[in-house]
Specification:
Length: 180
């Protein structure tokens, strides 16, 4: 889990819960880098005779690195639903307020590029800034129907070709004006 350090020269105490969390974190790192089929599993634990030390063997099968097969952007209108305890509302398709090609040009992610979580975050920031500069604000204090939101993208996986088809869903909110 970590080797010898200044205040713990023998290393860290072995905790199976921490090891499980580390394995999960390793999987997430691989998947965030485009290895969507990555498998990270504990192979074996090798304890010494008095069980005071353990070597941890982990097997990693990265699988294929997924490419973006296509990237689209869709507008979504969020209609408040008082029956929904999470407050997400009902989604309904809505026309984009700006040209899709113009919005796609702002995105770092492109068809043929590796599908990476960092690219999604970068695209979300770029689109939020673009809409924000045009009066479509994103803030938790705004009513759901009025606020701009980057909703979870729709992902369609093609494991044969190691591709993922991505559709960004934007709740565009409404335009705000100064002194409003």
């Amino acid at each position: 889990l970590h080797g010898p350090r200044l205040l713990s020269p023998g290393g860290a105490l072995f905790q199976s819960e921490q090891m499980d969390a580390d394995l999960l974190s390793m999987r997430e790192v691989y998947r965030g880098l485009g290895y969507l089929d990555a498998v990270v599993e504990l192979e074996r634990l090798e304890f010494n005779e008095d069980r005071s030390r353990v070597n941890i063997r982990v097997t990693v099968d990265e699988g294929s690195k997924y490419q973006i097969g296509s990237l689209e952007i869709r507008g979504v209108e969020l209609i408040p639903d008082l029956r929904d305890p999470r407050g997400r509302g009902i989604e309904q398709l809505a026309p984009l307020l700006f040209d899709e090609e113009e919005l796609l040009a702002l995105c770092a992610s492109k068809a043929g590029c590796v599908f990476e979580r960092a690219g999604l975050s970068s695209d979300e920031r770029a689109l939020r800034d673009y809409y924000g500069e045009r009066g479509h604000l994103s803030h938790p204090s705004l009513p759901l129907a009025n606020s701009w939101s980057f909703l979870d993208p729709l992902l369609v996986f093609d494991s044969e070709r190691a591709e993922v088809h991505v559709t960004y869903r934007l709740a565009q909110g409404r335009e705000f004006y100064i002194r409003e």
